[in-house]
Amino acid sequence: MQTLVVGAGAVGGTIAAQLVRAGHDVLLCDADPAHVDALNASGLRVTGPADTDDVTVPVRAVLPADLPDRVERALVAVKSHHTRAAAELLRDRLAPEGYVVSLQNGMTADALGDVLGPERVVVGFVNFGADLIAPGVIAQGNVATVRVGELGARPGRISDRVREVAALLPWAEATDTIAGYLWSKEAYGAMLFATSVSDLTIADALGRPAYRPLMLALAREVLALAPVQPEPFDGFDPADLEGSLDRLVTFNAASGKARTGVWRDLAVRRRKTEVDDLDAVGGALVHQVAELVRAIERGERRCDVANLDLLAAYERLDRLGRPLAAVVETLPAPARAADGPLLGMPVAVKDMIDVAGVVRGNGNPRAMAEGRPAESDAPVVARLRAAGADVFATAALLEYAAGAQHPGLPEVRNPADPTLTAGGSSGGSAALVAAGVCPAALGTDTGGSIRVPASYCGCVGLKPSHGLVPVEGVTPLAPSFDHVGVLATDVATASAVLMALTGVAPVPAPEPGALRVGLLAEQVADPRVQPGTRSAVEAAVERLVAAGVLVVEVDPTPLQALDEVFGPVILYEAWRELGPFAADPTWFGPDTDRLIRSGRDVTENAYTSALALREALLPAADALLHGVDVLLGPAVPFVAPVTTPVIDSPEGETEGLFSMSANLTGQPAVVLPCGTDGGLPVGLQLMGRRGGDADLMAAAATVERVLGGDAA
Q: Within this chain, do residues 387 and 466 fall inside the same structural domain, yes or no?
């Protein structure tokens, strides 16, 4: 009986060569004319570590249009997305007693069965590695598991036809559990697809500790969907995924096939892959892999390790971010520049900043459900993309950044202790950074909304100088005080993001002996500061002094004098900006509704008087920096509470006691972790000169270096 091999590429060609060597009558069919011509002219050559004989066998090959009218047995080894086309080629050619054997990746038996009849389909499982490296030439990397069976076979029942195929195919064994092998291969295949979006070898990508949680999560996601018991093969054991990774690293390191066929399709052949079949399996993380593959297929990305870093961030987003209620939306395969200073950095964006194609949710269920997707990116998002960053998620926030949680949404929890709040209003951004999901996130700050959650969660929070970072495309609260800023794992990352957003280049950090700090001692001594928080800040100051930093006490009275300006301005402007929503009494949560409506009672005269008072008081506040580089004080008087206090409550007023000053003056301010109180993070705040953002961050880098591991 002649055996037709449809698809003479890596798998089909390798099998065909072995069949010819064993004396079988084989006809090859392939859609590539150059490959067909080479096969007929020079034979089929199989080389590589798995076949040291470097075998060349004479074969006959045809294009699909030249297939014979009658086919007794066909081995189908085309890419999964060509399955139906291959089946149509065979529909009227397959003999009444003829059958086909699928030797493909993925779940292709149904597509073959739909056209040819399921009773005429034998399913193969092939795990050896091979590549078509030139017309007529295949490199075989290893010899591995090959199984054949029929879907729906009864336990212990293997048909004569399956036994016939097992005897025909090289390295094959018959099985009554072929579906279990296919599902295991899908799980392993999900990991292999993930490796293919990078420029790493299979063994290197599987072996790197940074990607281990990603690989395990992909396999678990697929296996959780399996309707049958998955089967082990070649070191992959569904019952021991942790051990499987180590075994698969060894297996692939010894193989002559260093990278997947998917990688070759993407990076070398630049053609469509079998990703649709993988995506059809389902699963959120698998979908992210598929979207990245498609982006590479479209030429929007290249195979790069940064893609693996993004996939690892998606895995952390689900594992670490979602349990904290910090995630609003995941953004698949985000558009970005191919190069830049932030290349491949995953960055989350507070869900009140426009991201093209995404609804601006503003921490409000109605806005999330009824809002229209943004037509374009806010300038800050566009600048991140231009710098090569991956804007990969939107982060949760207090409702409209106004200082209260909407009761219809869960409050963001604190990575340091999930029974406590992450703070607000940029709590989602702070939680994602502090939990290790991503190195940076954008937030907004009108009275401390970046710096308060940074202090609570134990990360760096930067509010730049007012007006330095554009706020177009950002939901306004009080434009006189609104800022877009950065939450980050460390000062260097915050500085890098600031440079991408503004063009402000970092300056060298001074040596401790060259740094002059103005200590706001009365803030530290304020009785509203918790004793443990005070102790942490004082201990940090002592370490700075011991390192040689010049610390002098500064009277904060000029800053305190500005406090009476805050209420009239923020309430008046918030009513002007958000009051139209209050026309619908069901739009806001009750606390936000009360806060916004209280702005109706602020007269224009009171508002303009408050602005005038601010202008009159600013020179005295500026003078506090004469003779020093930065001002230092507590970020928040206490550690994270169970829930965010409403801004117009006594606790809410105390929470913003030290942070709102920089919004009133427009100075840049940054919060750094400086220790703990009862095991919870404590932050200190540094304030610099307006427009002196680079100098502030340089000073912050020195302080961070002196305090060392206290940021952890």
A: yes
Which one-letter amino acid corresponds to residue 683?
G
- Asked if residue 155 and residue 185 are part of one domain, the reply reads no
Which residues fall within 8 angstroms of residue 82, CB to CB, at 6 or more apart? 7
Same domain (yes/no): 184, 164: no
Q: Which residues, 6 or more positions from 379, have their beta carbon under 8 angstroms from its beta carbon?
A: 470, 472, 473
Give 245's contacts (C-beta < 8 A, 6+ positions apart): 206, 207, 212, 215, 216
Question: Is 608 among the domain residues?
Answer: no
Gap between the Cα atoms of 450 and 357, Å rounded? 25
Angle between the 305-316 and 178-196 helix axes, to the nearest 10 degrees? 120
Residue 452 confidence (pLDDT) above 90: yes
Q: Which residues have CB under 8 Å from 395's CB, separation 6+?
A: 326, 327, 328, 348, 349, 350, 351, 426, 428, 429, 431, 432, 441, 443
553 lies in the same domain as 638: yes
**440 in any annotated domain:** yes
Residue 160 has a CB neighbour count (10 Å cut-off) of 7
The pLDDT value given to residue 712: 36
Q: In this predicted model, what pLDDT tens digit does every residue of 362-389 receive, in sequence order? A: 999 999 999 999 999 999 999 999 999 9
Residue 513: count of CB within 10 angstroms of its CB: 11
Whether the CA torsion 662, 664, 667, 668 is positive or negative: it is positive
**Residue-wise pLDDT tens digits, 678-691:** 999 999 999 999 99
* Pair 187, 315 in one domain: no
Output the CA torsion sign for 687, 692, 694, 698. Answer: negative
Q: List beta partners, residue 675.
A: 682
- Residues marked as catalytic: 350, 425, 449
Within 235-304, residue ranges assigned H as helices are 241-253, 261-263, 275-281, 284-297
**Last residue within a domain, chosen from 135, 151, 176:** 176
Is the backbone of residue 297 left (phi > 0), alpha (psi -120 to 50) or beta? alpha
Nearest to 632 by CA among 694, 709, 699: 699
Residue 710 has a pLDDT of 43
Note whether 221 and 284 are within 8 A (CB): yes
Reference 357, options 342, 372, 347, 346; nearest CA is: 372
Judgement on whether residues 466 and 505 belong to the same structural domain of the protein: yes
- Cis amide linkage into residue 425, ω under 30° from 0: yes
SS3 47: strand
What is the separation, in whole angstroms, between the first and last Cα of the chain?
A: 70
Distance CA 468, CA 340 (A): 21
pLDDT (tens digit, 9 = 90+) per residue, 244-272?
999 999 999 998 889 999 999 999 999 99
Residue 292 lies in a domain: yes
Instruction: With respect to residue 569, please indicate whether it lies within any of the assigned structural domains.
Output: no
Angle between helices 109-116 and 83-91 (to 10 degrees): 20
What are the distances in angstroms from CA 590 to CA 78, 209, 364, 533, 587? 61, 47, 12, 32, 9
- Cα distance between residue 551 and residue 103, in whole Å: 73
The confidence band for 54, taking pLDDT boundaries of 50, 70 and 90, is confident
User: For the chain, what is the domain count?
Assistant: 3
| Length of the chain measured in residues | 712
Whether residue 182 sits in one domain with residue 161: no
Measured distance CA(645)–CA(630) in Å, rounded: 29
Strand, helix or coil for residue 147: strand
Secondary structure element (H or E) that encloses residue 167, with its range: helix 160-168
Range of the domain at 133: 1-176
Whether residue 711 is predicted with pLDDT greater than 70 in this model: the reply is: no
